[in-house]
Design goal:
The complex is a heterodimer of chains A (307) and B (298).
Chain A: E1 19-30, E2 33-45, E3 50-54, H1 61-69, E4 76-81, E5 84-85, E6 93-96, H2 108-113, H3 122-135, H4 151-164, E7 169-173, H5 181-197, E8 201-205, H6 209-215, E9 218-224, E10 231-238, H7 251-263
Parallel strand pairs in A: 3-8, 3-9, 6-7, 7-8
Antiparallel strand pairs in A: 1-2, 1-4, 4-5, 9-10
Chain B: H1 3-7, H2 15-21, H3 53-74, H4 86-98, H5 102-133, H6 135-150, H7 156-164, H8 168-192, H9 196-204, H10 210-246, H11 252-261, H12 265-297
Helix pairs in contact in B: 4-12, 5-6, 5-8, 5-10, 5-11, 7-8, 8-10, 9-10, 10-11, 10-12, 11-12
The chains are: A alpha/beta (307), B mainly alpha (298).
The structure holds adenosine-5'-triphosphate and magnesium ion.
Chain lengths: 307, 298
């Protein structure tokens, strides 16, 4: 696929970095003891690779992303980016959180500008922000406040903010979760275009198996550890075929899809119920998640009020 | 606090956009000093704005009250000594002004309020920020400050007189005490409860220390800070009267006191009207500042 929308401005893009996750474990101290979430997580990610993290709700996907960028510290083990250990929040990473988390008092363009690398030239920065807003379809909304746009629009602004960093490692926590099906497909293509133009290393969390199959070089499934409480990497699957992939039926991918769904605890009873031809998108937590699939929802999307 | 001070290194500063996009939100907010931190009143566009109603509230209703006052005195419901007519109060004011006393009373009272408010607010901001930001400071000092807050304000008066005499210092100090606590309380609570998710965003994008404070925490707490300042100003007027009633030789509180002892109800009412006007005036000014700030940060 050509990338007509690939970024063109002169904001220096960092080289993609390899990421090594070494024996990472994380448990949280709770009132009545501790909650082991992750254990024995060991993974090497190639520079420029797109790795998709799949796992049921609460399996520790967001927690693992936090360990990679240094927002949280593993209970044991460590993470290396480009061979150097992560200590504190790592400037080589950019994160798009599970919620948009835009700053309510800034306009969307000012929010996106927050992601620009420190020391970006003012004009280059402004051009880059305008371009990113254009790419995520928000060109006309740069002056709006987060409370004045829909949940899906806020999420796209948050994606643009992460992309503004041109990071060596891009961490995306369900970046398309609040988008309607069509916008979601468009944003997936956008991500691939940007990745083709500026190949950073991407770790993306999703619940959507089809999304994983479309985007990933490899899919990492988090599952209960056989050797103790907590989750670990259940399986790592390489997705066959070069990107951009056809969204249409492919028997090899269809088989992998069934296997992944089974890995997530969703048994596929009918062999023929797969591929986009049947139009069912498999959102693993469709019924339990509170996501809004409608891009035009009026739900206010300012920062969550912490309670 | 100026935006320039906080956002000086921002790649994009789009003031004109801010003004444009919040246009629909400009509802009548003059009276809303109780905006809560996470839902500033300015944002509630649900309140309908009926044209002309503001004028009624600001002019017609006060005039009607004045008329009622006039009617009651004209009907001789109370004796003129107990309730003088509005005209009598007016001429008492003119008389005092001609003798050159009125401006002195007003000036000294305003000076005390503004000085005490400024001192109390700055200290309240500093203490509130320290307690709200540092768990150590919170644990060590919050209980003691809370205990001082529990002391009824007038209980300080004898001590202040003893220590500081009846000069300006004791009055300004009392007013500063009055202004300190509302600011301290709201600011400490606001800093304590800054959304952790937003702080994480700030950290993820490379802010820490004073940058995190300036870019994320200050703006997030801005609505509460302004609400606290507004409360503090009202409190400052309250404490002014307390201070002047007890020991002073000039000021609106003194005028109240003196008029009571020589039975000049007209001057007494004059002082009350002046306090109402001045209090409302300063509150309106801070309300305008609040609206500007909330438009920017709310
Ligand atoms: N700061 C924390 N303190 C205590 N427990 C935590 C903390 N952060 C996460 N957890 C726990 O760790 C587990 C994994 O959380 P995490 O957010 O990583 O899940 P997830 O896989 O991202 O889920 P979802 O798909 O619903 O977002 C949960 O049980 C959660 O309660
Ligand atoms: Mg998560």
């Amino acid at each position: 696929m050509p990338s007509p929308s690939a970024p063109t401005t002169s904001v220096a893009s960092a080289a993609a970095h390899p990421v090594a996750i070494r024996d990472v474990a994380r448990e949280f101290a709770l009132a009545g003891g501790s909650l082991p979430v992750l254990r024995d997580v060991d993974l090497d990610i190639e520079p420029g690779e797109i790795v998709v993290l799949l796992g049921t709700s609460g399996s520790g996907k967001s927690t693992l992303l936090r360990q990679v960028c240094g927002l949280d510290v593993p209970s044991s083990g460590h993470v290396l980016i480009d061979g150097t250990p992560v200590r504190g929040v790592d400037p080589r990473c950019a994160v798009a959180f599970q919620e948009p988390r835009l700053l309510a008092w800034r306009s969307l363009s000012q929010n996106v500008a927050l992601g620009l690398p420190r020391g970006t030239d003012k004009q280059d920065g402004a051009a880059r922000v305008a371009e990113l807003l254009e790419l995520v379809g928000l060109a006309e909304f740069g002056g709006h406040r987060p409370k004045q746009v829909s949940g899906g629009m806020a999420q796209r602004a948050a994606l643009a903010r992460a992309l503004a960093r041109s990071p060596g490692v891009l961490l995306l926590d369900e970046p398309f979760g609040a988008l309607d099906a069509l916008t979601r497909l468009r944003m997936q293509d956008l991500l691939l275009d940007i990745h083709a133009a500026e190949p950073s290393t991407v770790v993306l969390v999703t619940h959507d198996v089809d999304e994983a199959l479309y985007l990933a070089d490899r899919i990492v499934l988090l599952a209960a550890s056989p050797s103790g409480p907590g989750n670990t990497i259940g399986s790592v699957r390489t997705v066959p075929g070069q990107r951009p992939r056809d969204r249409a039926f492919d028997p090899q991918i269809a088989r992998l899809r069934i296997e992944l769904l089974e890995g997530l605890g969703v048994p596929s009873h009918h062999e023929d119920d797969h591929g986009p031809t049947t139009t069912t998108r498999n959102d693993v937590h469709r019924s339990t998640r509170h996501r809004n699939d409608d891009d035009r929802t009026d739900r206010p999307v300012g920062p969550r009020s912490s309670s | 606090m100026s935006r320039g001070g906080i956002d000086i290194q921002d790649p994009l500063v789009e003031d004109h956009l801010d003004d444009r996009v919040t246009e629909p939100d400009r509802t009548a907010t003059g009276e809303r000093s109780t905006a809560t931190p996470d839902r500033p009143a300015v944002r509630s566009g649900a309140r309908a704005r009926i044209p002309g109603l503001r004028l009624v509230g600001w002019v017609v209703v006060p005039m009607a009250l004045l008329g009622l006052w006039q009617a009651v005195t004209a009907a001789q419901v109370f004796s003129p000594v107990a309730l003088p007519a509005p005209g009598a109060v007016w001429s008492a004011g003119v008389n005092l002004a001609e003798r050159g006393e009125l401006s002195g009373h007003i000036a000294i009272s305003s000076q005390r309020v503004l000085l005490g408010f400024a001192i109390g607010a700055v200290l309240g901001l500093l203490a509130g920020a320290a307690i709200g930001l540092s768990r150590l400071a919170d644990t060590l000092f919050a209980p003691s400050i809370g205990a001082f807050r529990a002391v009824p304000s007038l209980a300080w008066v004898p001590l202040l007189l003893l220590w500081l005499g009846i000069a300006e210092t004791s009055k300004v100090t009392l007013i500063a005490i009055g202004a300190f606590f509302p600011v301290y309380t709201t600011v400490a609570a606001a800093f304590r409860h800054v959304d952790r998710d937003l702080i994480e965003v700030g950290r993820a994008y490379g802010f820490h220390g004073h940058r995190l404070l300036g870019r994320i925490m200050m703006p997030a707490t801005m609505p509460s800070i302004v609400a606290g300042l507004r409360l503090a100003l009202a409190q400052a007027w309250l404490f002014l009267v307390a201070a002047e009633l007890i020991a002073s030789s000039q000021g609106l509180g003194f005028l109240l006191m003196e008029s009571q002892s020589n039975g000049r109800t007209d001057r007494l009412l004059l002082a009350i009207v002046l306090l109402a006007v001045l209090g409302k005036l300063t509150d309106t000014v801070i309300g305008l500042v609040e609206r500007r700030l909330l438009r920017k940060w709310g």
